[in-house]
Design goal:
The structure is a single chain. With about 425 residues, the protein is of the alpha+beta class. It has two domains: about 5-170, 3-Layer(aba) Sandwich (Creatine Amidinohydrolase, Chain A, domain 1), CATH 3.40.350; about 170-435, Creatine Amidinohydrolase. It has helices spanning about 5-15, 45-50, 80-85, 90-95, 110-120, 130-145, 160-170, 175-200, 205-220, 280-300, 310-325, 330-335, 425-435; strands at about 20-25, 30-35, 35-40, 60, 70-75, 105, 125, 160, 230, 255-260, 260, 265, 270-275, 365, 370, 375-380, 385, 400-405, 405-410, 415. The protein has a six-stranded mixed β-sheet with strand order 6-5-4-1-7-8, sandwiched between helices. A hairpin with a 2-residue loop joins β11 (about 260) and β12 (about 265). α5 (about 110-120) crosses α6, α8 packs across α9 and α10 (about 280-300) runs antiparallel to α11 (about 310-325). The two termini are about 40 Å apart. The structure holds glycine and manganese (II) ion (2 copies). One manganese (II) ion binds near residues 268, 351 and 381. One manganese (II) ion binds next to loops.
Length: about 425
């Protein structure tokens, strides 16, 4: 992502904060896995969105109208020894030179410098309640400023959530962001195709996971957007199954929910296909039903249509199909009203997608479902999950879990599927698995 994009975002944020106020946001911390080993570092999405700065132990401060510079970055000072052991870090010089901070200070001096910046500001925008360390520090700084009120210094009187502003910005993807999302989608799609070609009975789920990750990395992207779900047979009925430790069996389906990140932007794809390459009749019938539900949901993706319509369309198609196949008994309207479909379809149609796989942005505005607008990206992912011990349905349906998930951009005229490159019709899946 170009620095100019981050600069544009900061300018938009400054405008919303307004002169006389201040905004503060902390980077992610480095998370310890065990003793001297850390989890791979992933920057806080809001922090990265505004700064492009990919280090822990940093704090960004935005002060519209500040004479010595509106954008201040606190970060680690450059340390040769640290560079030798842990690798490159920007230091104060890098913060101003490469990340275009107007001013940079050592993070170790935060307690001395930041309170002065808070003096005489009316509002503090910050991610309230997200980082208890910052919550605590801010209160301490404000208390200390109050002590000096006799000198004519005033402490901020209002705390405002920074998230709401930033998340509204993040909900609408720019052309630069869409380039990254398209790449994440393309690489993830190719990995899914490869998994279909690679899959065969007798492999362990984690071997298929390895094939996916191998493709992500060989194709140039390093980090998964979330832990891959590779769920054979009834494991697919556990929605966030990530153990991936079982052996794949001939007559089972395999559900793969996996996506990679491209410069902090996620893809999120699910496909379900037969381990042996051919759907059994019950599997095919349920699969086709989920696919029909996805098509019906996609028809509801266009500017001006309420977010919930796609979900309602999927519920209607699935409930109707479940009646026809005999998994539900009763009248369509009543079954929908009583939410009887929830025993087989317990999640919603999807979610916003962006820097976070379950991305930010309100789904309702003043208690009404939000209308879709161009530039929003969301997943459309209906599913059916029949628990293995579900005694209310015929045996042939039990232990089948299916989800079909694509990433969809709302366009001026409707939608564009970013993940169209992975086949999803029964015929196309069976063809690809035959090696055609
Ligand atoms: N991969 C998580 C989800 O589909 O929501
Ligand atoms: Mn999803
Ligand atoms: Mn998913």
């Amino acid at each position: 992502m170009k620095q100019s994009e981050f600069k544009k975002r900061r300018a938009a944020l400054m405008k919303q904060i307004g002169k006389g106020n201040i905004a503060i946001i902390a980077s992610a911390g480095a998370a310890v896995r065990n003793r001297d080993v850390h989890y791979p570092f992933r920057q806080d999405s809001d922090f990265y969105y505004l700064t492009g700065f990919n280090e822990a132990d940093a704090m960004a401060v935005f002060i519209p109208g500040r004479e010595k510079g509106e954008y201040v970055l606190f970060c680690r000072e450059f340390d040769e020894k640290k560079a030798l052991w842990e690798g490159a870090h920007a230091g104060l010089e890098g913060a101003t030179k490469h990340y275009e901070a107007d001013d940079a200070f050592p993070i170790d001096d935060l307690d001395e410098i930041l309170p002065g910046m808070l003096e005489n500001k009316a509002k503090v925008f910050y991610p309230m309640g997200r980082d208890s360390d910052l919550d605590f520090k801010l209160m301490e700084w404000i208390k200390n400023i109050r002590k000096h009120s006799r000198n004519g210094v005033s402490a901020p009187g209002e705390l405002v959530s920074l998230e709401h502003i930033v998340h509204e910005m993040r909900l609408f993807k720019s052309a630069e962001e869409l380039k990254l999302m398209r790449r994440a989608a393309q690489v993830s799609a190719a990995a899914h195709v490869r998994a279909m070609q690679y899959c065969q009975p007798g492999l362990y789920e984690y071997q298929v996971e390895a094939e996916l990750v191998n493709h992500f990395m060989q194709d140039g992207l390093r980090a998964v957007a979330y832990p891959s779900i590779v769920a054979g047979g009834k494991n697919a009925c556990v929605l966030h199954y990530t153990e991936n430790t079982d052996k794949l069996r001939k007559g089972d389906l395999l559900l793969i929910d996996a996506g990679v990140e491209c410069d902090h932007y996620a893809a999120d794809i699910t496909r379900t296909f037969p381990v042996s390459g051919k759907f059994s009749e019950p599997q095919r019938l349920l699969y086709q039903l989920v696919l029909d539900a996805q098509s019906a949901a996609l028809e509801q993706i266009a500017p001006g249509i309420a977010w919930n319509k796609a979900h309602e369309a999927s519920v209607e198609v699935l409930t109707k199909g479940l009646i026809e196949l005999g998994l539900l008994k009763g009248k369509l309207k009543k079954l929908i009203k009583d939410e009887k479909y929830k025993q087989f379809y317990m999640h919603r149609i999807g979610h916003w997608l962006g820097m976070d796989v379950h991305d930010v942005g309100d789904y309702k505005i003043k208690e009404e479902w939000r209308l879709l607008e161009p530039g929003m990206v969301l997943t459309v992912e209906p599913g059916l999950y029949v628990p293995a011990d579900c005694e209310t349905v015929d045996k042939q349906w039990r232990g089948i879990g299916i989800r079909i998930e694509d990433d969809v951009l709302v366009t001026k005229d409707g939608y564009e599927i970013l993940t169209h490159a992975v086949p999803k019709t029964v015929a196309d899946i069976e063809a690809i698995m035959r090696g055609e």
